[in-house]
């Protein structure tokens, strides 16, 4: 029996090529013909990553948009996607959503594979893009003295999932139809010292950026913009699925797109993450680990 | 309810980009930075594409080797793979096989995603390569007057699967550890008029080549080399999983690698496929459709 984290650690041991920047939580960046190709692959499983009763058009949207969000964080222009699709219920709704999201982003479907099989439905998507700026932004470039920025509010997907579960007609769009901030990523790529998308929760993703960069990041929790009621701020800092871009800029630099200063980068203090100047209690949950 | 073939037809309707040469049965070929990038994605589901009790090291091998075989048929040099992996039983054996196959072919693991989930295990692999010759060989270039060639015998995977199921110690390697004929593909790419790998059965794949090329292909069934007893020739022509390269060359040209002349290309006779000069009865099975 291998645990998921042991499996991932072993996979990382196999992924020693310089293009493999990180498995499971970062894109690969491959030089080819003078271009930098950016590659990402995500897999979704029914009951784990989407609700069995969820509209498959929304699942298709999310599958594509979240992979494009990974490209956005690299400042990459999408070249296309490859789909791996296990047939399930409501495949025609999946097609509807796939058509919508590809058209929305102007991204071609380049290929893929369709398979049968009983049991929970699984699907995978590979997105590839061309870097618009080199060096390609990474999560490892944050430096002491930088400020930490966020393109928009968190907590919207949390509220959206609750609305979807309640079925009461509340606005679930932020959960069902996340947006990939491609244009923002392109504008930011030449200026950031580090960048990533917030997929697993602001605190968790910021701590990953800090670890990758060998620094400590101090989050100013009151400065984080919310798409949920103020009393849920602490939850919203830990909730994922909002797909805002999180980036660092040198001290006084202003971002070229609307964004909120939400923290600062310090020399390594031991802890990767501080919230309002203090480390979190050991074992405190930061967000969604390995969903 | 959407049938698998209707779903694939609808997906093809979405895959209108010129790089999307065919969905589910061909690679995408994308121009970038003066290079032609070749992309393929396959998905495997437990109970459909591999036996639940099958050694996961063999499953890993097959997942990678069959995708590399798609690259071989394009004369492409592999640049790397991305893995989508749902944790299941015996993940450490999967890692062993993955390590073996990547090392055997000298191909890097560039990235991927690991997910949880109950039910039959699903996994996907995206392989990308760089074309070594342009134009990149396709299945649509066969011309009347060409001869049809095959790099080696068929029927080995059929015998191998039987040996594996019988568990009697017979040689199951051809089924468990198919080879991607990369060097042969590189040598052939500059000379072939059409090329593909035989994954779903010689007759079925030859008929696909004929349809894509707008010609009729006449198979000389006695000339097809076998890796099984002679009395099983008819089955072997329809069995898949052997991953030989099937290609066409102008009339008198000799291939640069060992190969067997197994048929000829005729002007379109109505039927895509003839066997020994005669069309097959309507509805006759040619091989594995959409496994």
CATH architecture of the largest domain in chain A: Alpha-Beta Complex
Task: Please give the domain count of chain A.
Answer: 2
Main pleated-sheet profile of chain A: 7 strands, mixed
Mean pLDDT score of chain A: 91
Shape of chain A: globular
In CATH terms, the superfamily of the largest domain in chain A is PurM-like C-terminal domain
Which CATH C-level class of the largest domain in chain A is it? Answer: Alpha Beta
Oligomer: homodimer
Helix content of chain A: 25-40%
CATH fold-level name of the largest domain in chain A? Phosphoribosyl-aminoimidazole Synthetase, Chain A, domain 2
* Poorly predicted runs of chain A: none
Description:
The structure is a homodimer of 291-residue chains. With 291 residues, chain A is of the alpha+beta class. Chain A folds into two domains: 128 residues, 60s Ribosomal Protein L30, Chain: A (2-Layer Sandwich); 133 residues, Phosphoribosyl-aminoimidazole Synthetase, Chain A, domain 2. Helix content of chain A is 28%, strand content 26%. In chain A, the strands form two sheets. A seven-stranded mixed sheet of chain A has the order 7-9-6-10-8-11-12, sandwiched between helices. In chain A, strands 1-2-5-3-4 form a five-stranded mixed sheet, with helices on one face. In chain A, α2 runs parallel beside α6. The longest helix of chain A has 17 residues. The first copy, chain A, starts with a helix and ends in a 12-residue tail after the last strand. Chains A and B meet through α1, β1, β2, β3 and α3 of A and α1, β1, β2, β3 and α3 of B.
């Amino acid at each position: 029996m291998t645990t998921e984290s042991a499996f991932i650690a072993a996979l990382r041991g196999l992924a020693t090529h310089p293009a493999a920047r990180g498995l499971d939580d970062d894109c690969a960046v491959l030089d080819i013909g003078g271009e930098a190709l950016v590659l990402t692959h995500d897999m979704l499983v029914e009951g784990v990553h989407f609700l069995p009763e969820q509209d498959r058009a929304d699942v298709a949207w999310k599958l594509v948009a979240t992979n494009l969000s990974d490209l956005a964080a690299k400042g990459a222009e999408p070249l296309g996607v490859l789909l791996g699709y296990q047939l399930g219920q409501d495949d025609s709704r999946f097609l509807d959503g796939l058509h919508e999201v590809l058209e929305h982003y102007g991204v071609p479907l380049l290929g893929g594979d369709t398979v049968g099989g009983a049991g929970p439905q699984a699907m995978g998507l590979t997105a590839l893009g061309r870097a618009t700026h080199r060096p390609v932004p990474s999560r490892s470039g944050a430096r002491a003295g930088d400020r930490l920025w966020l393109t928009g509010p968190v907590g919207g997907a949390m509220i959206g999932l609750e609305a979807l579960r309640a079925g009461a007609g509340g606005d679930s769009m932020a959960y069902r139809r996340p947006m990939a901030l491609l244009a923002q990523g392109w504008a930011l790529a030449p200026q950031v010292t580090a960048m990533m998308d917030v997929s697993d929760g602001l605190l968790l993703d910021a701590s990953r950026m800090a670890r990758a960069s060998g620094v400590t990041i101090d989050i100013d929790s009151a400065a984080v913009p919310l798409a949920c009621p103020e009393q849920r701020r602490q939850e919203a800092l830990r909730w994922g699925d909002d797909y805002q871009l999180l980036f660092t800029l040198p001290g006084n630099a202003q971002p070229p797109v609307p964004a909120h200063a939400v923290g600062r980068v310090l020399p390594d203090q031991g802890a990767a993450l501080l919230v309002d100047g203090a480390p979190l209690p050991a074992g405190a949950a930061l967000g969604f680990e390995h969903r």
